[in-house]
Amino acid sequence: MKLVDLSHRICNDMPVYPGDAAVSLTPAAFLDRDGYNNFSLTTVMHAGTHVDSPMHLTRCRRFISEIPPENFTGRGILLDVRGQQIIETRAGYEKNIEEGSVLLLYTGWDRLYGKDEYYADHPCISAELGELIVKKGVRAVGIDCPSPDKPPFPIHRLLLENNIFILENLTNLDRLLDAWNFEVFAFPLKIDADSSPVRAVARVYDRKWPERTDSKKR
Fold first, then answer.
1. What are 55-69's pLDDT values in tens digits?
2. Count of CB atoms within 10 A of residue 50's CB?
3. DSSP 8-state code for residue 164
4. pLDDT digits (tens, 9 = 90+) for 94-131
5. Is the pTM of this model over 0.85?
6. How far apart are CA 106 and CA 100, in angstroms?
7. Residue 152: is the preceding peptide bond cis (ω within 30°)?
8. What are phi and psi of 127, to 5 degrees?
9. Is 2-8+45-204 a CATH 3.50.30.50 domain?
10. For the chain, what are the domain ranges?
């Protein structure tokens, strides 16, 4: 078993979505002066690696703090979608995408993190694939770019209206290409907000995933 960090670092002046306020991470106390160290963080909830909940783009009034943590973890399914500007449904997706899983889309776009084109030209999920994701009942969808779509955000709304959470700005998905059996953990802060930064991690197993003894899918 090994752990793969799927998160970008939170730091001063890190990349943010165009129009969002800059992240400010500054010392608030110093060991030599105050007897302890402390830092102050000012950030929007959508900077860096984060998870969107339904409140973000629907009329849902439930804060992300009110959502049980089991919604943010599950068996991982990775789709290699590199080279697709519009991410379409392909043969095998119907079979391979599992109910209750965390579906990760590897675009390779994280190599452009911090550059203008990262936000301007990123790939998007097609309407057909979005509908398939809803049909399969996944728990969350993660992608290594800033968003699964662009304004007016139809895929965001489709997924969130069906209580499918969205992980954005992931990284290191290439390290899961040969991982047949892994879990994803992306717990939000227990914060009264629409979304939250996360430390997304994959736990990769070096053995076959245990077979379930019941008939229900994970």
1. 999 999 999 999 999
2. 25
3. -
4. 999 999 999 999 999 999 999 999 999 999 999 999 99
5. yes
6. 19
7. yes
8. -60, -40
9. yes
10. 2-8+45-204
